[in-house]
Each structure stands twice: as structure tokens, then as C-alpha cells.
Amino acid sequence: MYYSLAALAAVLISVMVAINGVLAGAYGLHISSVLIHAVGLITATVAAVVKKEKLFSVRGLSAALFTGGAIGYFTTLFNNMAVGRISVTAILALSLLGQAVTSLVIDQFGLFSMPVRKFRPASLAGLVMVSVGITFLLSGSGASAFVPVLVSLLTGLTVVVSRSVNSQLAEHKSVIVSTWYNYVTGLLVSAAALLIAAAAGASGAPENIPAIPAWAYLGGLLGAAVVLLSNLCVSRMSSLAMTLVMFAGQVFGGVAIDAVILGEFSWRSMAGGIFAFLGLVLNILLDARAEKPRREKHTV
Asked: Hey, which of 16, 21, 141, 284 has its CA 20 to 30 A from 31?
């Protein structure tokens, strides 16, 4: 079930990145970030009210547990910096490469209270397939600009660290409370960044409110759904396995969006998705094989 939820989150991410790019194109990086986090906070607040969550009953918890949204702010900022300069497919591929590397480090050393899952040489086969998938995705994508390529890679780091921190808060409280604080801190940081940019005369505020479709404001709602789903899955899957699921989900989601909405079909993206999916399956099988002796030992 958790693999399916992670795949759904991945599809939502591919839609969200495209939507947020439209908003950033209209309002600029800083204002669009505030709008995205504000919509996400409203969504999380509604969910918290419906579920009657005790949002302020957090005494005694470490301040570090509330930094997920501040880290996640940079994910939104980096994505918006790259959209329009390189393809969405390239952004997703580079981000997922960054996630794969970060996830390997987290699993290897058990960072963020995650269980230690030592790297196994046999896992190289799955990583090779993922690398082949990324190569297909980047081939012909126009990913040549240094800054958007760099920030897309960095989103891999911010995504994994942010969801790991949010997951720890969810373990102490609940998924909805964790999501709510994610958007509170994210909104505070994005608002501070906007004020600093405005003081420097670089806020990028449009002279008139642009006429853009209502759906362009839904990125924050999708982001809240992604955070909720990620919090449910991250502690129940290895960090690398979750990254591979997200890879496959985002690629196939992107291919479907391009085919249905834009009327374009990319064989490169499909080939990359297939290789990523094969790498995912191989990694899951290896994880299950490694965990079997441990389960048998505990049942004896």
C-alpha cells in the first residue's frame, strides 16, 4: 500500500511543478512562493480542523523537528528558478538523481532516526538502471544551463531532508500536524524572503495582477497532499526505495500529462521510466531478500 501512496505523491509532484511554474512566471519567484505556501497552509488548516487536531500541543519537542517547511521552501524556490530554463522532465530527473544520492547516505548511516540499511553491492544493478533512465530523460532536454541544473540537483537534497524531518514530527504528533507546521514555517521563510527582496528592490512584483487561470493557484494544495502522503510512507520504506518509487511515478505522470494535455509523447521519457521502474522492482526484491533472514530470526 505504501508504495502505491508514494507513487501517487510522485504523480502529484509532476503536476505541482508545472502548475507552480505558471504561477512563478506570472508573479515572480518570491510572491509565487508566498502564494503557494499560503494555499498549502489553508489546506492543512482545513484538514486539521476537520480531524480536530491539537495543533499547539507541542511542548517539549525539539525545535529541529519544525524545520521541514523552512527546508522545503528552498525546494519550491529552486524548482521555480529552473522552470522555463530547462524542461520539466530535466528538472524532475536531476532532482531525483539528487534524491537518490541523498537517500543512499541516509540509509547508510541511519540519519534522521531512520533504520540503518547498509549499501549492498547487489543494489548497484538497480542504481545503474536508474542512471540509464536519467540519461534517457536528459537526452535532448536542453539541460545545459549551469544554474538551473545545479538548483535542480539541490532540490533532491532539500526534498529528502525535508520529508525526513517532517516524518519525525509526524511520529511524535500526527501526519496532519506535521503538514501544518511544514506550511507555517515555509510561509514564514517565504514571507521573510519576499520582504528582503522588496527592501532590495528585487521582489519582482507585477504592476497589475496577471490574468491567469484559477488552477494555477492549486500548487499549494497539491503540495499539502504530497507532504501528507510522504509523511505516511517515509518511515515505512527505505529512503532509496521511496526515491525509486518517486522516480517512476513522476516520470510516468509527466509522460501522461504531456500526452493528454500537450498532445506530445516522448519515447525518451517512457524509456527512462521503464528503466527506473525496473530498478525499483530490483531494489524492492533485494530489500525483501535482505530482510527475510532478520524476520525469520525474530520469529524463532
From this structure: 141
Burial of 238 (0-12, 13-18, 19+ CB in 10 A): buried
Other beta carbons within 10 angstroms of residue 45's beta carbon come to 18
Strand-pairing partners, residue 86, are 83
Separation between Cα atoms, residue 21 and residue 149, nearest integer Å:
16
Distance between CA atoms of 100 and 273, rounded to whole angstroms?
15
**Structure-model confidence comparison of residues 213 and 297, the more confident one:** 213
Contact status, residue 258 vs residue 264, Cβ threshold 8 Å: yes
Average pLDDT over residues 133-139: 68
Contact 81, 217 (CB under 8 A): no
The per-residue pLDDT for 39 is 95
Nearest to 239 by CA among 131, 98, 68: 98
111 backbone φψ class: left, alpha, beta (φ>0; ψ -120 to 50): beta
The 3 state secondary structure assigned to 181-241 is HHHHHHHHHHHHHHHHHHHCCCCCCCCCCCCCCHHHHCHHHHHHHHHHHHHHHCCCCCHHH
> What are residue 77's phi and psi, to 5 degrees?
-60, -45
Please state, in angstroms and rounded to a whole number, the distance separating the CA atoms of residues 181 and 83: 27
CB-side neighbour CA atoms (13 Å) of 168: 19
Residue keyed to cell 493557484: 217
Q: pTM for this structure? A: 0.76
